Amino acid sequence: MASSSEFRKIVNIFITLLFIFGFVGGNVLRISFGNGVAIGLYDIAVGTIIIAFLLQGLKGKKFPYLLPSIGLFFLVCLVSLLLNSTRFTLSQLMLSSLYLVRLTLYTGLYAVVLKGKDSTSTWLKRLWVSMVLMGFIGFIQYFLYPDLRNLYYLGWDPHYYRIVSTILDPNFAGILFALGVFLSLYLYSKDTQKYFLIGGIILFIALLFTYSRASYLSFFVGLSIWFFSQKHTVLLGVILVAIIGFIFMLPRPGGEGVKLERMASVNARVGNMSDALLVFRSSPLSGVGFNTLRYVKNSIYTGIESHAVSGFDMSILFILSTTGLFGLAAYGNILYSLFKLIKSKNKTYSEIARLVVVSIFMIGVHGLSVNTYFYSLVLIYLAVLVGVYERKEIG
Q1: How confident is the model over 199-237, as pLDDT tens digits?
Q2: Distance between CA 270 and CA 276 in Å, rounded?
Q3: Which positions ≥6 away from 313 have C-beta within 8 Å?
Q4: Residue 147 forms beta bridges with which residues?
Q5: Ramachandran region, residue 126 (left: φ > 0; alpha: ψ -120 to 50; beta: rest)
Q6: CA angle, 223 then 225 then 227, to 5°
């Protein structure tokens, strides 16, 4: 019969594998139920991990610092749905509220990382391995399956010779790769193992081959904050020039997506912003109801089931249109609480605090053109990272 320590090791291995496979599975390992409802292996993994940790018991009595702010945002989202309940059927309201269940899961993961028995190092390495594997799979996809145009009928954009990995979208893959580079730098600063640098290089090259301008810009912002905060301005300049050189040396095998000067996506986003502002003006205070855009946007629905039909490209406009100014204020309060948490402990940023700040700004910039703030794997990344920070620095 296995001892308690052996059982604990088995559980740890199970949770590690479940987390990695869930994260790496991305949008490939997910089941669609129609009506814009889908569940990914990452959702199942997070839910299972929460249950496993609850059964083992959480340590400490301190309440997670961000829970009140997150709870307030959830409340505003629910109120926005109730205020608009007469506009939608009961089934539409129930389907729209399902994303709050998903957000609750990710909030639970933040609490588990903070109060669970696994070390902060273990959680960060799980996250890092997942990101590096996703980058490695991206290269396999690039060489063996570079043409995704045959997936258009399933609602995915027709990408051609761009790394999309298991995400099937170069913009979201790009921000994950960019975040993974800085996670690699942090882990290398703590444990100077060469494999962290190798992983970071894999992620950086994968980022380049996404041809995602939003991800490039986010990465430049991250580099600027990372090196400016350490007063390495000359090194920053050299690195930026080198990266720009790498970008212009990238192959252009064909297709619109690999052209950095492409305007079609810019024009599409301008139109998308106009639609969002029209929806916002119809209900500026409380919005049209959280996550109800798939029903509101029927007038601009193309007839092909799109994975973007339930949102707008710009995260802030998604918040404004669905929850109004009250929702934007509640969301801003989460960010305020997070930076207050960091500032309360550090007059000068520690390495983990720097990583959190860099990640928040990168995601913030990326969300100006893509709905990054509510993307599942980005939220899972943040849940782990913020949970680790609060546990290491606040206790």
Answers
A1: 999 999 999 999 999 999 999 999 999 988 888 888 888
A2: 10
A3: 269, 272, 273, 369, 370, 371
A4: 160
A5: alpha
A6: 65
